[in-house]
Amino acid sequence: MDVGGKDAKKRRTGFAHFFEHLLFEGTANIKRGEWFKIVSSNGGRNNANTSQDRTYYYEIFLLTN
Q1: Helix (H), strand (E) at residue 58
Q2: For position 44, what pLDDT does the model report?
Q3: Is 25 marked active-site?
Q4: What three-state secondary structure class fits 61?
Q5: Cα(62)–Cα(42) distance, rounded to whole angstroms?
Q6: Which domain holds residue 38?
Q7: 10: phi then psi, degrees, rounded to nearest 5
Q8: Of 20, 25, 34, 59, which residue is the catalytic one?
């Protein structure tokens, strides 16, 4: 799949990183900024990064007894 910086077209760089940020902007069902609130209010954290080979998104939830 063409998902990292190595797959950028000449004079059209940065799109993988741009789309990484867009993912956290919301959806038709989740308003802008709400995803971070949903994750953190349930004990989680999330982040993403883009490298030459991949764009990586993750959420981490710590379970407690």
Answers
A1: strand 55-61
A2: 92
A3: no
A4: strand
A5: 9
A6: 5-61
A7: -55, 135
A8: 20
